[in-house]
Amino acid sequence: MDNSETNDIEILIDASYAEVAYFPSRQMVRIKWKGSVTNEQYRSAFEAALKHAQSGYPVKRFYTDTREQGVIGPENRKWFEQVMLPKAIESGLKRAGTISDASIFKRYYLNMLLKSVNKFNLPFKLCGSEEEVVDFLMSE
After folding, report:
1. Beta pairing partners, 21
2. Could you read off the pLDDT of 93-102 as tens digits, one per residue?
3. Which of 69, 92, 108, 122 is the most buried (most CB within 10 A)?
4. Which residue ranges form the domains of the chain, and what is each CATH number?
C-alpha cells in the first residue's frame, strides 16, 4: 500500500502474536501473524475483525499475512471453516486473500483453507506480497 493508505488505518489488536488492522476507506481488514499462536490467540484475532464488522464498520475485504505464522492445528482450521468463515460472509465479506512464503506446513494449511473457502464461493487468492493481495482484493 502507498503512504497515503497507511494513514487510513485503525489498529484493532497489536499483540505479541498478531496485529489486526482495519483500513476504513478500503473496507478491509488485515491480520499479520507474528509467530506461533495458541488456539485462543488464533481465534481472538479473527473474532476482533468480526466484532468490528458487526459493530457497523464494513469489512468487504480481508487478508492474512502468514509469512511469520507458526503451524496451525486442525482444530483451528475446522473452527475457521465451520464457525468464522460463515459468520464473516454473513457480515459482508466479499473477497479474501493470504500472503504466504509457502513452506510445506503452510502449504498444507492453505490448501485446506482454500478448499473450505471454495465451498462458499468466496473469491480467494494466495499471494506472495502485500501489493499483490491488495490489488486482488480491490479488483472488483
Report:
1. 11, 30
2. 999 999 988 6
3. 69
4. 3-138 (3.30.750.24)
